[in-house]
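Researcher: Re-running this chain for the archive, since the previous output was lost when a drive failed. Same request as before.
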Amino acid sequence: LALVLVAGAAGGYFAFRDSDTDAPGGAAGTNTLLDFEPITDEPEEVWSWSTDDGVARAAAVKKNGDVVIAHTPTGGDTELLVASDGDAEERGTLEVDPEGFIGQLIDEDLLIAVGSGGEVEGFSLKDGESRFVLEDAHFEDDTEYGALVTSAGETMLMDSETGEERWRVPNTDQTGVEVRDDVTYLVSDGELRALDTETGEEDWTVETFASGEGTLEAAEDMVVLSDGSSVKGFDPRSGEELWSEDISNAMLDDLGLDTVVAVSTTTTTDDGGVEAIILRADGEQGRVPIDTSSATTEQGVSITTVRIDGDYYAAVPATRTIYDTDGEEAGSLESGIVLPTSDGYYVRDSMEQVTYYDGPGGEEAWRFDVPEGHRLDGIGSRMLITGDGSEVTVFE
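Model: Regenerated structure tokens:
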């Protein structure tokens, strides 16, 4: 999550990112900076698909605009279909009972599905076969070599074509896994490790803190680690410690390519809010106050990275404010959940309305009302997807 401190703040929609771009981002379905292209004019309906047996919803979007639909007939297993212009072709049936979809396609073929029992399945849309099913697992990230998955205290890279395990390493600490420039970063047994993503070979390792929970984030010129009592920056090439800041219980997220923002969940301002600390390779840059009293339950206390005309900004829905990476106020927001695109951003008001803004000052380009009886189910490059449980409708 992009520093969202309320569980489920993403609201149930799935954001399908384009992995060809170089912007920072995380697994789709989160509020981190996503890479899909926005719709610049008011959306219009282009096609729909429906079933009269069971339920259906969008699961992923391919680069050519085809939509992967998950259809669960009454009393049956979930089948996957690929739809274009309202025509759908069945590709196969999942082995897991899906609790939800991360909605991430790897190499346009491998779909990651999350099972209700904590399983992670990699399903090939090419031949309709399950590539792998891992029990009690967590999908970490997609790479050009395959899917990074953590299970039973180990992180492994699963090949996107064969489904075979390419490498496996211990991952005992709950800090997550970060990938940047073909390097995978993780913390295990109190050590920060940098691994070659293709081979799993270790580039460097440094002792950080006693084994336990923390938060990890990788930017262009630094790797940032929160250990509960402090936040430290490390050189991504050597592991050398660059700086250390006394920030307790901090959640981290990237803000542009070279900046990380930390929010302490325990350090409060004079008025009872919290502070977001902006960090770069040379340390702290500034602080942004967040008045938590104005936050709705859905908004939580969150900071979302948006990119406008090549510049990065921090959108803070709780205070309806946008800041630049120096911590200076740059614009304002309407209430709602911010959904970043490759340029500009959407604001979702409940699941019934989406507005697109193409400037930090809140310049509205268009406002879209979700059809009655539907809810916003997905966002892809130059498309919005709505659904009512049995019908999937695409707008461009």
